[in-house]
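Section 5.1 Outputs to date
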Amino acid sequence: MTTERPTPLRVGLIGAGIQRSLSPLLHEAEAREQGFSLRYELFDVDVLRQKDPARLIAAARDLGYAGLNITHPLKQRVVPLMDALSDQAAAIGAVNTVVFEPDGRTVGHNTDVSGFAGMISRGVGDVRGHRVLQLGAGGAGSAVAHALLAMGVSRLEIRDLDAARAERLAASLVGREVEVVGAGLDGAAQALAGADGLINATFVGMVGHPGTPVPLDAVRASHWVADIVYFPARTELLQGAEERGARIVGGADMTAIQAADAFRLITGREPDTERMLAHIARLVRDRLADERAGTAV
């Protein structure tokens, strides 16, 4: 095993269905702006022969990678593979950033919390006292829930296709002087009637996963609606909510902010978060334009 960093600095993303990820362009562009070379590679377990995250992480470490990002559906599965966890990753029970220390140790972090909090602060503002319906209780959903409680919501209802998973996440958050409940997706539309905000923390709405996680006729103009999906920039949920007069927040800001935090952890350099926010907006816009042009052809 080598501990020397190759040039360019090598970083990767492990997940499923990530061929269209904008993370390589985002990280590599920030490195260029800072005057160093970084190569960001994708390890898509949907297309790779090797699907074991433990072996992929070990291979990246032994090849001298500086670190990795982890995405759906592996954020929770990689937790026991880490040699150490940051306090936040341990509390959330999910890892989205792995740093390879010079001594070979793997340290798991979670930057989804800061990414989501920044996204909501920019797009919604102060949510203290708000009642929120959250859809999704996986690795990203756990980070979202922790962020919401830290931001001072008064009630959080977590619903997931797997009701037991939603109940477990809710139970892990009890005792924070906030009403937290977990349940299955059935009844989510009715639950939204008593909420100020709705958050989609599922993969529904991503390219290849069309649809909405809750019927659109449940959304009112008084709601704010956030979706952690960043491509497409306007998911079916966000489009429908906007048509009904609701304030909407897309996932591009979360992607840029959590990426900036991961960039800092992996490279040891201070990112320009505002520059990365502007860059992700351009990337999403350009990708959408390319796809529309392709459809037209």
